[in-house]
Amino acid sequence: MSDWLGLRDARVLLVGAGGLGSACAEEFVAAGARLVVADIDRENLDRLDGALGLTSQGCHLLQADLRKPDASEQLVRDAVQLLGGLDAAVHGIGINRRLPVGELSNEDWLEIIDVNLNSAFWLGRAAGRVLSAAGGGRIVYLSSVSGLLAHQHHAPYAASKGGVNQMMRVMAAEWARHGVMVNAVAPGYIATDLTNGYLDTDGNRQKLESLIPAGRLGVPADVATAVAFLASPKVTFVTGHVLYVDGGRTLV
Ligand SMILES: NC(=O)c1ccc[n+]([C@@H]2O[C@H](COP(=O)([O-])OP(=O)(O)OC[C@H]3O[C@@H](n4cnc5c(N)ncnc54)[C@H](O)[C@@H]3O)[C@@H](O)[C@H]2O)c1
């Protein structure tokens, strides 16, 4: 098996076992990485294990609610212990509620910011401390084209992803001298549990496809390839970037 990304035996903490997290897990396992996968949802973890046989290949599945700072700290400690160190951390969790600004409740705003942005800070801070002290590593965030474009009915989601992008850039600037490269992958619409309900309503799938120069929606593997690249130890001088994986959606 070719190891062009240098990920064989890399120790990776992957947070998120949903549609995109699962595709990333598949990509990392195929590249020979050793994984800890964490998610709040036991069923998603078990489904992923059933699909990829992760635990039988020495990977570890941990249930954790990443909204809590202590849980992120503990998760990073557990990953370091289970893997014997850490080379990369991927933040791939998120939620969305598509409502006009005037119809969003206080709870909608707070929950979306909590899951999408606060957890990104808790996890990145915990992982960055470990990686800096160890002399280097990679942190990859799953952002979104919504961090750039002003999609209607996306106010808290867009704010959270714009926040992730800027937070990521500051982390990248602070930790570059310690060999920690911090980047984000920003997908356009990809069919997963996060988006299927919306895509299946009112011809939204066709409307969105017509806005994408590539003429199709993305698939999870499109995103996983970019995540694996940015998690690679061979990517030694690329930091603070938002890599759009959107078929050209943000070009037009
Ligand atoms: N699917 C897309 O089209 C798309 C596009 C752009 C960006 N993204 C981003 O990619 C990431 C992954 O999206 P997805 O499509 O896989 O979504 P998904 O809904 O399929 O999976 C999200 C996962 O996050 C987990 N999660 C939610 N709250 C959590 C918490 N508090 N602690 C731990 N885990 C929690 C869920 O259990 C789920 O497994 C998100 O950040 C999302 O915003 C997705």
TrEMBL record:
EC code(s) of this entry: 1.1.1.-
Example GO molecular function: oxidoreductase activity
Keywords: Oxidoreductase
Top-level taxon in the UniProt lineage: Bacteria
PROSITE patterns given in the database record: ADH_SHORT
Enzyme class (EC, first level): oxidoreductase
Stored InterPro entries: NAD(P)-bd_dom_sf, Sc_DH/Rdtase_CS, SDR_fam
Family assignment from sequence similarity: Belongs to the short-chain dehydrogenases/reductases (SDR) family.
Name under which the protein is recorded: SDR family NAD(P)-dependent oxidoreductase
